[in-house]
Amino acid sequence: MQGSIRIAVDAMGGDHAPQEIVKGAVDAVNTRGDIHVLLIGKEDAVKQELAKYTYSAKQITVIHAQEVIETAEPPVMAIRKKKQSSIVVGMNMVKQQEADAFVSAGSSGAILVGGQVIVGRIKGIERPPLAPLIPTKNGVSLLIDCGANVDARPSHLLQFARMGSIYMEHVVGISHPRVAIVNIGAEEEKGNALVKETFPLLKECKDIHFTGSIEAREIPSGAADVIVCEAFTGNVILKLYEGLSSTLLSVVKKGLLSSLRSKIGALLIKPALKKTMKSFDASAYGGAPLLGLNGLVVKTHGSAKAAEVKNSIIQCVTFKEQDINGKIKNNIINSAEGEK
Amino acid sequence: MQGSIRIAVDAMGGDHAPQEIVKGAVDAVNTRGDIHVLLIGKEDAVKQELAKYTYSAKQITVIHAQEVIETAEPPVMAIRKKKQSSIVVGMNMVKQQEADAFVSAGSSGAILVGGQVIVGRIKGIERPPLAPLIPTKNGVSLLIDCGANVDARPSHLLQFARMGSIYMEHVVGISHPRVAIVNIGAEEEKGNALVKETFPLLKECKDIHFTGSIEAREIPSGAADVIVCEAFTGNVILKLYEGLSSTLLSVVKKGLLSSLRSKIGALLIKPALKKTMKSFDASAYGGAPLLGLNGLVVKTHGSAKAAEVKNSIIQCVTFKEQDINGKIKNNIINSAEGEK
Question: To the nearest whole angstrom, how far is the Cα of B153 from the nearest Cα of chain A?
Answer without folding.
Answer: 13
